[in-house]
## 1
Amino acid sequence: MPLNTKHCWNATNIPTVIGESNSFGDWLQLVFSQINLKSIQMSNMVCWMLWKNRNDLVWNLTFLVVSEVLNTTLSVLNQWRFVKDKTFDHTLGLLNLEDGRTKWQAPSMNRVKVNTDAVLFDNPSRYCHAQVVRDHNGKLVEAMSHCYLGSVSPELAEVIGIREALSWVKNASRNDVVVETDCLTLIRWIRSSYITMSYLGRVMEDRRRLLVGLQEQNVMLRFVKRSANSVVHYLARYNFSIADCTWILENAYSEFDYTVCIDSKQ
């Protein structure tokens, strides 16, 4: 059922029934005269999302429900505020209490944790991503690195890394898995319902569907700070000249094994 605009405005708690007006512009000015700056920003973003949702319905026969419109509105608004105000807390919006860890933490009993990261290089242009899987004792289960020639955006490189991490979970038929990345933009995009027709947007949507398909395996995606993702960052950077490589505990080279042990004991 297409979105009910009135229900969407009611959910924002912004007063919209104010006096009489002959046009949308007049109505909007009346609303602005009765609310504060943050509510004005929210009103502008809601108008934009409703307009976009209407166009998606007309041209693509797709639409968002009220909760999806509001979640996407808040996410985009938070990102805009962060760009405009460097004192704004960019960890707000679509994040939860489990996000933002500054140190690597072992998963709970019988779970595994997959950390993923990507690194870009110049001369020649190439990008590498890696995944490190550890168990509840912090011991290495498996690690993978992949390196490709070519130039891509940092976001696309991170998305490819997430795909590899989720593919590993699916192919290994693992349950109870935590996947961690230090790419905040990626986390917000996957968790939101925002869809863009760009190439990156289509790739993101594919990853979102893959994650949804793994819900029965209890797979969780989390954001961590770079300091909690240092081992996989090291692996992606160290192996920039290797096309594809996989390690397990028994054949991991000594320097990497030492790095994992130190990080797991912090």
Note: The longest helix spans residues 37-60.
## 2
Amino acid sequence: MRPPCHCVLLLLLLFHLSGTWADLDGSFTVRLLQTSTFQNNSFVDTEGLGLLEDIELGSLDKHTWTIRFHQPWVRPALPRSDWDTIQNMIKIYLQQFSYLVNEGAMQKEVPYPFVVQCTAGCQLYSNMTSRIFGYVGYNGQDFLSFSVSNGSWLLSQDTDLSRYVQAFLQNYTAFSELVEVLFNDTCVDDMELLLQYGKAALERREPPVATVFARTPGPAQLLLVCHVTGFYPRPISVAWLRDGREVPPGPGLNTSAVLPNADLTYQLRSVLAVAPRDGHSYACRVRHRSLGTRSLLVPWGSSEVVLITGIGAGVLAAVAVVAIAVLWVWRRRKRQQMEVSESRNSILSNEA
């Protein structure tokens, strides 16, 4: 079956738009997602989406096979004539894709309906190098993956159909040539132009908001929950501190995956299981690009949120000890003053 290779062709067409990004701070990944549902040999429903990290650059109008721009700065990045060329190439690609899939389905007696999914893209680094990847799915299951090291397709499931597609892709020399043009020319040549238009979106920073609360699933267990939300970009570090020292990974510590919010920010939860009244102090520490060198520190049992700058766990513990000592001395002195005052009042009362 020939069709999966043509997912890469669509990627090439849209990479004039999305695959030419250099990195402002680390690396960026560009992905093209394609889902084609074949109801029968005469009807196919195709959806396509181009992403830069989590930014939706554009999508495919499945009725007209034209590009819909999701960001105001995407269309001006290229001349109108270039967009016309890209859209014409997309229409040609989709016609060929549908034809070749149906042809392969007939040869291998694949029953309708079925779904072909493709994910392809590249990760671009600040030193102008790149890493490419490609995955093919069939009916919601991994089918093939692309190996960058030797330029070959690997079986994700060993079936007669997957071996048939793998053999075709290995012999499709035009694929290698197109990839070479893409990464040696397009990604590098258009990089500065696209950065100029998308820089503000790529540099967007939203600071996290963190809260700590507790749950008691049983009398012998206390679950401390650190909920962090509203942050952008996605990378974030969340850790628990016990008496100022970071809690190492273990069965009692469970941190969720980063999940999207409706406002294009992210959230996650970190849950720490502790024994009730164990005598330790706990705090949730959050590090994020929007905070710079500072960290967000939310102690358990306190509504106060603290921003700390470059303070290590040992220093935090020492500060806590000093604060407790100062508070103890202050209370002792106050108690002594109250005892002296009460003694004086008693003497004066006796004299009267």
Note: Confidence is low (pLDDT under 50) at residues 1-6, 8-23, 311-327, 344-352.
## 3
Amino acid sequence: MVVLNLQNNNFCGILPGIYMEQSRLKAIDVSYNQLKGQVPRSLSDCTMLEILLLGNNRFSDTFPSWLGKLPRLRVLSLQSNGFHGAIGKPESSLNFRKLQIIDVSFNNFTGKLPYEDFQSWTSMKVANLTFDRDNVYMVAVISTPLRYFNYFKIDVSYTLEMTNKGIKTLYEKIQDHLIAIDLSSNKFDGEISEVIGNLKGLHLLNISNNIRIGPIPSSLGNLTELESLDLSQNGLSGEILQQLLQLTFLTFFNASNNHLTGPIPQGKQFSTFENDSYLGNTGLCGVPLTKKCKISETLTQPPLNSEQGEGSNFPNKFDWVVIMMGYGSGLINEIVIGNELTRRNWSGFSRIWKKAVKVKVERGK
């Protein structure tokens, strides 16, 4: 047996802990039952396991960090249970090294976000650049011996339910490249560390409805693959940083019900987000909100363009003085002088000035 699918039944009691060494199990799905107690430690013998779905039960346990030793585990869902306590430091830097999707939402986890674990989730640090990645899915290959042929192979797709872009979504097939973290609806506290910006392959990140404080880290701008970012219902403060404009794939953004202040970033993907992305932040201003920003809030250094970059021909303070001299005399030719100076043509200054004076004298006759 390769796939054990017992989801959506009325099984109750504890999950049996009979898993032999050299188990061939690749997927276990016991979600949507009434199982309780602890996660059986014998699951650590399932070294071929890739998918473990325990969501929507009544498990009461601490975070099963010992599952990090499973060398092939890619998807772990513990959502909507009674898991509790802090997620401690990993025993090894190789813990969960193949993990792509983790969902611990709607539990009672406390303490800081597991930043030490973020460092070991190496599969989340690299974006999948495969051209046809949208057509590749996580599957279990089942080989059945036949009478006249060696083997008959069947691909069994894995399924998963998780929140995506604010909506509970059932994935009848899990895209092979999908990388997602859902830590929402727990009691995680403290600031969001810049370390989270190392997970550059992330597509979905949800840390809503916790007890987060402090600013939005600028390193979130490094998550250029991100499609959904939910920071709502925390205690975040400070501004929504301009670095988030770098998230060009972002189609869902929710920062509502925090203590954010200042102007909302304008342009790119942020021009598509509606009011509900920012509600409950009385200090925010700018489009799409009706509250306008004060001049002091919107004054920023204008970005350099191709004509204003370093080493360009754009006039400096001295150049403008020369241009104004031309206006004062009323001579068009002297404006040309000012423009010539902005091009740093210092060597031709004397010749141009004499020519201008000559023209002026001739016109005066």
Note: The helical segments are 115-120, 295-298, 317-329, 332-342, 349-364.
## 4
Amino acid sequence: MADDDYWNKSNIQSFSFDEDEKGFVIKHDQKLFVDDNVSEISYELPASSEVPLHLIISESNLRKVLEEQSLKETPLPKTISAEEELKILRRRAQENFSPPPVSSVIRKMLLKKPFSLECFRALHEKKSLLNEAIRSGNGDAILTVVLFLQRTLEKKHFHTIMQSHPEAVTHFINYLVIRCQVTEASDFLTMLGKSNENIILQYESIMKLCKSPDVKKQKLNKLYNECIAHQTGTICPYYGTIVTNYIALLEWQLKQKINNPKLINILDVSPLESLYIACTNHKWTDASSDLSVANQSNPYHFADTFKIAQSQFDWVTLTERAQSQAWRDLDKIFEKKSWHSLKTTKSFAISVPLERVIFQLNTFDAPADVLNTFLAHIDDPHRRLALAKRFNAGKSIVDSLVDLKDREGLEKFIATLHIRDNVQIHAENALKNFQKSKWKADGLKLLKN
């Protein structure tokens, strides 16, 4: 016999060790695999031989396949009658050809029951499905339907439907951003004509993902040139201001870092943090503290450039100087010069509530003289007295009692002082003034009589 004939057809029968194996068997007269491409060598087994099923697939894999198939359908109760079983099977077969009510499908989604969306084929059916998902208010259901529409619809139909459903757009954009598909999300918003939302998305992604200030500055410039500069009619001006201000802030920080390499923490921080650093490195006793002097590192110029509110400036400056224990600078910062009757006068001005200022000063262990300076500007003597007693500011206690004309309270306070100091001297002088004012008042009464 020729070699080719021998290999193409052989009369040698194969031997099976599992002839007596019980269980599922497959006869070789049935085709296990269907393939259009017939192999050059056809191996034929006699019809009497059998192959056990566990040789084709393991028991564990077979169990997984059966479990996966059973997940698609709810198992029928064993006690169900044949008629009821026929109705259920008929209903399942009908759902494969005509879609069930959208409310029932969404209800299955919410209850985490098996469901299928493949039966919704018509465009109006898919719109109804999305509307029902939005009415449910469940984000998972909305996103599931949106992803189904994206997969089964043409882009133009998908964009048309999403254009009229902003809730679905929000969930879909969040889904893309979480998957780090920012470019796809930006393109999608551009196709929908949502330019402002696209700017917000790109700005937030740049601020979160870019760690290098140089790269962040480069991307922000690109965002401004491509999405803001040439679309002034459709873009909210506020967004352009945010981008340009942050670019200017990055440029200021980079320049300060070049001028002072020790400023390690100045890069890529907020404007108020930058102001705090500027206050730390500024010489308040120098003439450059005047706003008229052109100096970019000047805190006053920084606040004017980046439109920082006066209350924010006062609070940051107060906190930084207090933390630095530079108490003498506070008078220079918060005493404003003004012209009145051809004379230069000073007036104390601060845009933060004085009570909050005093609590902040006490946090940094401010001296009593500093507390007295700020307490003196509280108009209400009752509130001033309460704060002075709380923080043990003796001079303010005396002044408040004098303003309240409480001689008895002043005498009791003097009795609590055991050390001869400036507070006791100030209290005794105040008590003497009480006595003099009373003598003058009594003398005026006698003259009138």
Note: Residues 3-64 form one domain.
